[in-house]
């Protein structure tokens, strides 16, 4: 972020509570909270409800801290992109220095408190996740490579592993597959968004795949990653946290997701522009349902198993 940009943003009025909440990216945080909670609850080790509550709270705070640090660094491009111009910093409600201090304070608080509430392995994992999102993705990958969302997607895939680590103090094949489910889902999810938001990324100088290689290549990549995603989603069904409920949901969801990706792959820009990218927007919306439904099915399996009814 340039000095000139910083000086303009620093001339901000006193921020309200809602402005600081917005810095935490609450919509993104909801995904972090939910997947971390599922990772914790499906683990084979019972955790006291109070520890569950505290752990998920601190993981959420850590996720919010990452969002604040992201907004601090990206304030210059947020001011250019239409969908981000209303964020607290470009809107002049919070200064960059305030966002930086807020993000760093919450980062430290979340890591220390998770270590005290659960275990230090999970806390270290949370610290690494914050670092990965704020530094590796936001400061390095996002503006340097069209593969930004592929590699950077790991940050959003870590929460269920952190939840699992809260319960078990380690890593298991189940937590790795939960990670891979989100990791492989992230590129088609965001590239679908980029298909109908291309001008925003181009104007901001962000090398999204649609900008550097065009929409046709992006459609090809969406199909490839969707096909690669399906085996990981189905593999979860045959682990200790899977079962017939999850597998049924996974088969249906992946058939629909692959069908949607094939539909996008077959479209050209004339078709997309004619219907105002309706199919791309529909695919993006379904991608959200896809991920939440998989983790909901895992949670359902865990609930059934607690009554001696779930599993294979």
Automatic annotation (TrEMBL):
Record keywords: Cell membrane, Heme biosynthesis, Membrane, Transferase, Transmembrane, Transmembrane helix
Subcellular compartments: Cell membrane
Chief location: membrane
Gene Ontology CC, one term: plasma membrane
GO biological process, one term: heme O biosynthetic process
Membrane association type: Multi-pass membrane protein
Catalyzed reaction equations: heme b + (2E,6E)-farnesyl diphosphate + H2O = Fe(II)-heme o + diphosphate
GO MF terms, alphabetically ordered: protoheme IX farnesyltransferase activity
NCBIfam families: cyoE_ctaB, PRK04375.1-2
Function: Converts heme B (protoheme IX) to heme O by substitution of the vinyl group on carbon 2 of heme B porphyrin ring with a hydroxyethyl farnesyl side group.
Protein name: Protoheme IX farnesyltransferase
Organism (species): Actibacterium pelagium
């Amino acid at each position: 972020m340039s000095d000139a940009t910083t000086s303009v943003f620093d001339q901000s009025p006193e921020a309200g509570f809602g402005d600081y909440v917005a810095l935490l990216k609450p919509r993104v945080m909801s995904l972090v909270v939910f997947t971390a909670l599922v990772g914790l609850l499906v683990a084979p080790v019972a955790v006291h409800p109070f520890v569950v509550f505290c752990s998920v709270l601190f993981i959420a705070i850590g996720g919010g801290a990452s969002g604040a640090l992201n907004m601090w660094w990206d304030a210059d491009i947020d001011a250019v992109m239409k969908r981000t111009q209303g964020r607290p910093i470009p809107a002049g409600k919070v200064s960059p220095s305030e966002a930086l201090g807020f993000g760093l304070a919450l980062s430290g608080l979340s890591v220390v408190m998770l270590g005290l509430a659960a275990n230090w392995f999970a806390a270290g994992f949370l610290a690494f996740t914050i670092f990965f999102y704020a530094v590796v993705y936001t400061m390095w990958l996002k503006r340097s490579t069209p593969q930004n969302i592929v590699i950077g997607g790991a940050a959003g895939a870590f929460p269920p592993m952190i939840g699992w680590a809260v319960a078990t103090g380690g890593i298991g094949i189940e937590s790795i597959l939960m990670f891979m489910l989100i990791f492989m889902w992230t590129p088609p999810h965001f590239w679908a968004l980029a298909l109908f938001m291309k001008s925003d990324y181009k104007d901001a100088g962000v090398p999204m795949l649609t900008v550097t290689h065009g929409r046709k290549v992006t459609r090809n990549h969406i199909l490839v990653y969707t096909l690669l995603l399906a085996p990981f989603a189905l593999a979860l069904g045959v682990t200790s946290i899977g079962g017939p409920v999850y597998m049924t949901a996974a088969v249906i969801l992946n058939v629909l997701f692959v069908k949607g990706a094939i539909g996008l792959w077959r479209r050209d820009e004339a078709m997309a522009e004619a219907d105002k990218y309706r199919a791309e927007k529909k695919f993006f919306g379904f991608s959200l349902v896809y991920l939440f439904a998989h983790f909901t099915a895992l949670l359902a399996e865990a609930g059934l198993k607690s009554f001696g009814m779930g599993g294979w």
